Every structure is written in C-alpha cells, then in structure tokens.
Amino acid sequence: MPQEPPPGALSSAFPPPPTYYTHFTGENLTALKSHRLEDGTPPAADSLPEPLCYLVPPPPPTGSYRAFGEEWMVPERYPSLEEAGIRQLYPPTSMAATAAANGGGGGVDKGKELTVDRTIELRRLSKSLLLNYLELVGVMGMAPEQFHEKTADLETILFNMHHLINEYRPHQARETLCLRMEEQLERTRRETEENKKAAAKVEDILARLELVAKQADAICAGDGLGVGSLGEKRVDDGVAKARVRDMEAWKALVSMGGG
Amino acid sequence: MADRLSQLQDAIDQMATQFFSALRYIGTHHDAVPVGNEAKVTDDTAVIDDKTTFDAAKGELARDLIVKSKQIEFLITSLPGIGVSEDEQQERLKNLETELKEAEEKRCRAVRDREEAAEKLDAVIRRLRRF
Asked: Could you describe the subunit structure of this protein (chain B) (predicted)?
C-alpha cells in the first residue's frame, strides 16, 4: 500500500493530490525505464520495488468503483429498481429494452415502443399516485394507525416514477443533441450566405470602379489638353486626370448608396 | 430553465410535499367533535380554524393537488422525442454530422472568398487615392 494519506485527504471537498505524485521524480522515471519489458510496455506494478510501483497505473476497475461518494457500475448503467430492493410497478418489457439500450446492443425498434410505453406507464402511475393518496386520507380518517401500508405504496409509486424518468434521460440527451446540431447547421449556413453576399457586393463595387476609371480616361482624352510646354502638359494632364477620376469615383460610390 | 425531465421530477416531488402538507393541515387545524355525552376534547397544540375557513382550505388543498396532477400529466405528454427510436436518433445524428461538416467547409470557403474580395477592394482604393 502507498503510505497513509494525511487525515481528511479523502473526505474534504477539495482533496489534495494523491501523495504518490511525489514519486514522479526524474530519477525514478529513468529507473522505471530500465525495468521496461522487451516490447516496451511497463511491467506489472507488483513486480517493481517500493517507490517505482507507484509510477505504473493500476489496471482499470471491473465491476464497480466509488467516486464522489457514490458507487458506479462498469460498464456504466442505471441500476434497476429490483437491485435497489423496490417493487417494479410497470411491465418488465421496457426493462429488457432499456438494458439493451444501456449496453448499446442492437435491437430492432427498441426505442420507439419504449418511449410510448413509458409515457403511458407514467400517466398510469400518476393516476394511481393520486388514488393512493385518496385512500391514505380515507385510512387516516378511519384507522390512523394503519397508515404504513399506504405510505409504503405511495413511496413505491414515487420511486417507480422517478426511475422511469431517469431511464428516459439518455433518450432526451440524444434528442437535445439533435436539436443543437440542427441549430448549428442553420447558423453555419446563414454565415456562409452572408459571406457570399458580402463578397458579391465587393465584386460589384470593383466592377463599377473599373468602369469609372475607363470613363475618366475617356473624359480626359476628350478634353484636348494640348496647351503649355511638353513637360508641364504631362503633369497637368496627370493631375486633371486624377481629379476627374476621383470625382467620378465619388459619384459612383454615392450612387451605390454608401455601398 | 431546467429540462422537461427535471421539471417533471420536481413536479412529482412537489406533489409529494403537497400530500404531506395537506394531511398535516387537516391534522393540526381541525376541530374536535364530542362523542356521545363526553366533553369535547381540547388540544392545546392545535390551531383550530372555524368551519368556513377549514372547509375553504380543504377545498383549496384538494384543488392544488388536482392542478399539480394535471401539470404532471401535461409534462408527461410533452416529453421530447416520444415515438422516436434510438436507432432513428443515431441515424439522424450521423446525417447531421456529415451535413455539418459540409456546411462548415462551405463556410470556410465563403470566408476566404470574402477576405480575398476585401483585399482586392483595398488595393484598388489605395491605387485610387494615390497619384
């Protein structure tokens, strides 16, 4: 056994890390490497000397294990009512199907009838809950000391209802996942659409600007800038051309409505 | 808001609490009736309501129970995914997954297109300004 944990280590809400982490030193890790088997797998923990055996993870638990103060089954499944010592009031057909669903095994149409069954059973149970209460009140009026029987019945019914609902949970989880995925799909498609629209708009603007440039060139060419010396003319020509082009571009942009 | 199943479980728990409190109210607020010629029994711990209040309270408690029961029934009928088998759900999930992957690819492409377009526009605007 590893050395005793400090008191309170297992029961506190935020327990400290297990004490064996102190054995994970560089020295110990190198020592462990020399113990490796031929195929490179680490050897079994019990064949190692004292500090090294804490470095090898234990085999996974079988049957059940405890965590957060509760017993968990391996593989995980919801314990049946009978296992908890409570009489099951609904027919066992749904139990077999649930076992199959829990184990992930195949089965034809196991869920469909199951859910329909379950709602019917739940309604039946809620009716008998009320009826049993009525009987309890009656018993209390006649012979108050005989209440045990009726309260026990009520308790059984309540346990059964809760159990049925809990069995339904995986089904609901899958259903919720479906819905979330549909939402995400919708969102992604919308985003694609918007991006496409934005790109198209930009292309549109570019096309118009190109047109503007051509127009400006045409206007400049038609202006007959033939005055002044040759060098001056070239500069003037360029400035005038740019001015016209800018004006046309602004016009185009404004006509697009700030596009 | 909690999911339907939790709502249903809460409603059932509330119903059980109502069972208890209704009985307790009757137990602690009722008036005693003398048997034959004996003197009327008095109980110091009980708070005795007069007959009209008591009857009204009884009626209200009964009505609340019925309302709660109806609520439970409503919740049961509105449980999600009734009549859908697990295989159908799995099938649907698989289809959704592939569709999502396709949509995501398309979205990435669209984003790239948009960015390219923006860059092009940017370059053109720079050229426009400069002389």
From this structure: Component of the Mediator complex.
The distance of B80 to chain A (nearest Cα, Å) reads 6
Residues B24 and B11 in one domain: yes
Both B76 and B99 in a single domain? Answer: no
Q: Are residues B104 and B116 in the same domain?
A: yes
Nearest-angstrom CA–CA distance, A43 and A142: 72
Q: What string of pLDDT tens digits covers the 259 residues of chain A?
A: 445 555 555 667 787 787 878 888 888 888 877 777 666 666 676 677 777 777 777 778 787 888 777 777 777 677 777 777 778 777 765 444 444 444 443 334 445 556 667 788 888 899 999 999 999 988 988 888 888 888 898 999 998 888 888 888 888 888 888 889 999 999 999 999 999 898 888 888 888 877 877 777 777 666 544 444 455 556 666 777 777 777 777 777 776 654 4
From A172, A181, A193, residue closest to B96, measured CB to CB:
A181
Helix (H, G, I), strand (E, B) or coil at A67: strand
Report the distance separating Cα B31 and Cα B60, nearest Å: 18
In chain B, the number of structural domains is 2
Residues comprising chain A, all counted:
259
Q: Are residues B4 and B33 in the same domain?
A: yes
Q: A residues 178-237 near B, CB within 8 Å?
A: 178, 181-182, 184-185, 188-189, 191-193, 195-196, 198-199, 202-203, 205-206, 209
Residues B20 and B52 in one domain: yes
Residue showing tokens 């249903």: B8
Tell me the one-letter amino acid at A72: W
pTM attached to this predicted model: 0.61
Distance from A60 to chain B by nearest Cα, in Å?
29
Helix (H) or strand (E) holding A180: helix A147-223
Long-range contacts of B33-38 (CB under 8 A, 24+ apart): none
**Residue B105, domain extent:** 84-131
